Amino acid sequence: METKIKIGLIGFGTVGEGLYQVLEKSPSVKAKVIQICVKNPEKKRSVNQSLFTTNVDELLNNSEINLIVELIDDADQAYHIVKQAMQKGKSVVSGNKKMIAYHIKELIQLQKENNVAMLYDASACGSIPVIRNLEEYYDNDLLNSITGILNGSSNYILTRIFNDGQAYSTALKKAQDLGFAESDPVFDVEGFDSLYKLIILTVHGFGTIVEPDEVLNYGISNISDFDIQYAKEKGYNIKLTAQVAKIDDKHITLYVLPRLVTPDKYIYGVEDEFNGVVIQGEAYDKQFMFGKGAGAHPTGASVLSDITARRHNYKYEYKKQKYFDIPEYSTNYSLKIYLRYSNELDFSHFDFEEISEKFTSKQNNYVIGTMKLGNLLKIKHLLPKLNVFIAYIGGSENTY
Fold this sequence. Notes:
Rossmann fold, Dihydrodipicolinate Reductase, domain 2, 2 domains, 7-stranded mixed β-sheet, 6-stranded parallel β-sheet
């Protein structure tokens, strides 16, 4: 049964305005923006000013509106808006991955209690419909791992460094100029964006809810010319990747780390602002999904897809939580890593189980060895302060 969608739009930045324009030009979508909430009512816009308000309660209390589309950056504010909307019986579409990652358990319960839907395909991987595929196509317990490049900004930066020989600072500036990276790039380059997306994919892939603060995320801001030279000499590419994988039938592990990738892997050739996700299972081996992960139009396309899904009363069923035994999150897992360091004090923080290769020089040193993920997680907040660079090489699984 189709439902006429009447939208309360919160946020009218690049994505919000683009979505409005698409809806105006697409009457077949059968969705119309009724009211728009913005911070600055004085800003000149090419849209009827009568649609705008600065009072979000006007949207939440408008009985004509049956879908709230939330497209703002502030995760805390987004949470309060989304929660109120659902409690008032309104379904929600959101792209705020941080908000969802931290509150997904409560959001699932609110959906159930209020008989509404919370859709957020736009929160993970831009134009790639990963979440809905995990819900509908991979709705069984044969899934072994999800591995991917989930952040287009960091991938664009690494592409410029590797392919064009640009310095990290130059590549970052170019990503910012093109709108792929924010003026404060920490969210992207330190792996937080990838982490929040990984938390969401883990819920839909395995049914397991993990607190973001309990997962290792380490980014690319400390990458050096030495690391690039090492990777090229050994035939690797460097990609910032996120992974969730089964350790055994009862446990999974997840982390976000730069990875030394060989040419035979699917994600080796994923470049610029594109994302690539490899889904591996017991029966279907490996399947690869590829698409743009940064920019207004890819995100807008995902938002539009969620809106049209609500026309048909679609909602996530969270099938892995309903029908299967939910695996537990574990950090008792050995990672093989490359560690470049400049002094012994920095090196002393790393509790290696075994070191298979070691190189020393006046300026740079590196080791190849294995460490427990749990030991790396213990120094998660110290890592950005050390003059080191870490990259994952492998583990007991080969999932990408």
